[in-house]
Amino acid sequence: MSGSKKTAQASLEAMYRVFTVAEAPDSALSRIDQLISRNLAGFLQDHIVATEKDLSEVEKDFADPNIPDKPMFVSEQAQFLLDKLVANSVHTASPSFVGHMTSALPYFMLPLSKIMIALNQNLVKTETSKAFTPLERQVLGMLHRLVYKKDGGFYRARMHDAHHALGAMTSGGTLANITALWVARNHAFPAEGSFRGIHREGLFRALRYYGHEGAAILVSRRGHYSLRKAADVLGLGRDALIAVDTDEDNRILEDDLRNKCLELQRQRIRILAIVGIAGTTETGHVDPLDTLADVAREFNAHFHVDAAWGGPTLFSRQYAPLLRGIEQADSVTFDAHKQLYVPMGAGLVLFKDPTLVRAIEHHAQYIIRKGSKDLGSTTLEGSRPGMAMLIHSGLRIIGREGYELLINQGIEKACAFADMIDQHSHFELISKPELNILTYRFAPPDALQALSQADQRQREKINAHLNRITKFLQKTQRERGKAFVSRTRLEPPRYDSYPCVVFRVVLANPLTTLGILNEILREQQALAGEPAIESEMTALKRTVDEVLNASAGAS
Amino acid sequence: MSGSKKTAQASLEAMYRVFTVAEAPDSALSRIDQLISRNLAGFLQDHIVATEKDLSEVEKDFADPNIPDKPMFVSEQAQFLLDKLVANSVHTASPSFVGHMTSALPYFMLPLSKIMIALNQNLVKTETSKAFTPLERQVLGMLHRLVYKKDGGFYRARMHDAHHALGAMTSGGTLANITALWVARNHAFPAEGSFRGIHREGLFRALRYYGHEGAAILVSRRGHYSLRKAADVLGLGRDALIAVDTDEDNRILEDDLRNKCLELQRQRIRILAIVGIAGTTETGHVDPLDTLADVAREFNAHFHVDAAWGGPTLFSRQYAPLLRGIEQADSVTFDAHKQLYVPMGAGLVLFKDPTLVRAIEHHAQYIIRKGSKDLGSTTLEGSRPGMAMLIHSGLRIIGREGYELLINQGIEKACAFADMIDQHSHFELISKPELNILTYRFAPPDALQALSQADQRQREKINAHLNRITKFLQKTQRERGKAFVSRTRLEPPRYDSYPCVVFRVVLANPLTTLGILNEILREQQALAGEPAIESEMTALKRTVDEVLNASAGAS
């Protein structure tokens, strides 16, 4: 054997070892592994640096576009990840990080995820997933029953049947919404006469054949941005997503919806789908779903409910009635990585009629053959991991009653926090919680008084000041690293629909206490006294005084 | 406190514990966790049952559509999963399972995945991912450079820039292909004059405005089925995916492609994209990419390369030239969960021009605001896990040279196995390996002789017999559980393009040896002697004898 051949052989054997050996029990990576198993919360607390580093600083550690030629020791990469990645990641599990929809995970999700990854199944077909396919079909069945409450016979006949699909698993709510609207679109333009169906001939010929000038989807202005993305991807165009006005509580206005539908009909635009929201992303409100079901029927439209956030409210006997009408939806989006407390990357869409997905069914020679039970024939994705295993485990280990407790405590905490804000002199509640989300903003007492007396121009001026202050407070609080609320813009009718910057709080983490929430308000109020925002505060005060003095002079 | 309130309080506290405590070190789940860490291969070997259980039997364990009311002990669920799910899953890591594209994982992927899941970041925005966003941008940069080899300045200016995206991460190759073609479609119909762009006005108005009768995508008949799905989702219709004929080696025929393009032009159909394949799913062949680049330029079409399988061939100095021309592609699909050896759920698409994704860029108020570095503004998915961390680790720990060894050994093993089949009396090689995939079928010596002497009708008859036998052997071998090859249908020109059932072998697992492959052939030959296939073998012999006797009589 020549020298270079010997070296190549040695390297190859080293490479094989990577696939066969295990990490030594005392290695850096093993120690991290064990630490996470023993004490997840402690690991996160100890390794994530609280104070936020500027992103451009962080980028310096990830600046090299070269793939190294030579292998690196596992321990070296592990240490790099701990110091540079983990340290500068976001503590999504922290009870004082109430700004996003990612919460703490139940501890058992970690070892179960390890089993899932160790098995490395591919759910596209039974040949690479075997028992995972029946398990995934069962998970879809369990959630289907939670929403649609069909009888036992319905599920016995369909849950494991090759010609039915109670739903489709996706990597998240966006793909679930796209899948639902893809089904709706294809269903609206079926094969007929000389037309072979939109799935084969496309949208252009479909509209020509059926004599339409376009196709539209309607949703309230609080609809998730993924719906706009769906309209683009599906070839309808983003303008085909029609935003309907909402009331003071961010719920779709039936009259505006009906008028828009009639207007579209006059323009010979096909109404593909009406989308109801069960838990708007920004404010957590629920549309009047039963009313929407009626309107959808009236206009022969697919009725989709985006329950990515609010779906699990159905676990709660007390609050499930908020979603009344969801059982009339043709399709429903659920996100498992939100309120089912599963790790990132698990969503799904359910179909009332399990033959509906035939509108998007596809086959290939080597997999997902016709008549197989392969789930890949009715999903947007191809190869997919076995996340259904984690949903299955959550549903069984936490159980309906466990999820009920989680849902109830979140809603009740949101109500208590809303009261706290209402009673606070320096904050204004902008959207009242219906589920476990609320929004508020910084507003000192004289500003609120001035707003109630000001004319529209003055109101805008005050709101513009408050916007800049609220934005500063949110950003600064995040950077300090003790707590995190997110921010968005809403257009409250009480302020002439002027876009107001608000703090957004999502109360899904059961470890968040009222004490923590009180501390968040205290820190925000303290930050309002910092020099960096002083000139803005002075400007606000001037505007407020003008209004109040003019008002006092006039009276 | 009343009794029921006390109970509720106790339950709530139990629920909190699920989010705070760790698994006891001696619990069932902890023991599995440790076992996987210590000996992954042993865990899989011990817990997956070799002999295949009928799917309808497995379904019985997943038949209940009810979510249990009461919580279940974690240990009970863990035991259930071990006995019912893990036992009946597929041993994708086994070196004798060479039928699919899912291989064994390097051991370090498991503890690293645990860190990823523990952190539970959401890559849609920096606010919920922080350092993961620069890391993901770096991973895209590393693979971009592997393909496009731009200079350092190119990456310094663009890799971390909010207005550029070198690519987009996805959950797999299907979404990567859809994303690429979505970009191509939107790019073909930009805003102009009174037209606000297809992304806003949709396909119907785009075609009308630009005066086209339709839009098409061309790919060889070996193109992955996800491209047909993409054509459907994007509103073009599946018939808009035009299948081009291939040569004996499953490579696209340039003349046929050019003729089809000219024909489409005559019909005023816009050619959106030409797709080249770097490693066809069924046979592992590579299209002449440089030729395709020329044709795409000629017809002003987007040039996309689906390198989901073959992309990592670029790591090998010896074999990278097979992909010559890939650097001219406007977009390239890579699958990380294939030959980058990352767990299921990681794909990506790269863009030569990092401004191209602006065609699909979208924003929202509360996240992915304009000017942010949030990666969610240019991805099809919304919330996404931090899989980029695992790709990053693979690229650094295995290194270019490590991946080169893996690629080289796979291709060389495929060549050696092809020789073995060629020399074997009872098998016929159907597609020669170019990368590490090959196909073959069962064909006893007299059958091959008869095929060479038969007329077309007789050839079909013999091939039909061989199809049934090969199908039986594949299915039975899988059920016995010792080895697994997959099967598909190909239309070899030498057999008048008659659809032939073939065994398909993918040699990505470095632990697969020639001895194992030899054993696979031995078992297949032995299975051909089983009673269940005896009548088919007899029928084949009769047909073969007819041909050979007639031939002998004629000579």
Automatic annotation (TrEMBL), chains A, B:
Residues that bear N6-(pyridoxal phosphate)lysine: K338
UniProt keyword Lyase present: yes
Keywords recorded for this protein, A-Z: Decarboxylase, Lyase, Pyridoxal phosphate
Gene Ontology CC annotations of this record: cytoplasm
Biological processes annotated in GO: carboxylic acid metabolic process
PANTHER family: CYSTEINE SULFINIC ACID DECARBOXYLASE, GLUTAMATE DECARBOXYLASE-RELATED
Gene Ontology molecular function: any one: carboxy-lyase activity
Transmembrane region(s): none
Similarity comment: family membership: Belongs to the group II decarboxylase family.
Cofactor(s) required for function per UniProt: pyridoxal 5'-phosphate
Pfam families: Pyridoxal_deC (PF00282)
Protein name: Putative pyridoxal-dependent aspartate 1-decarboxylase
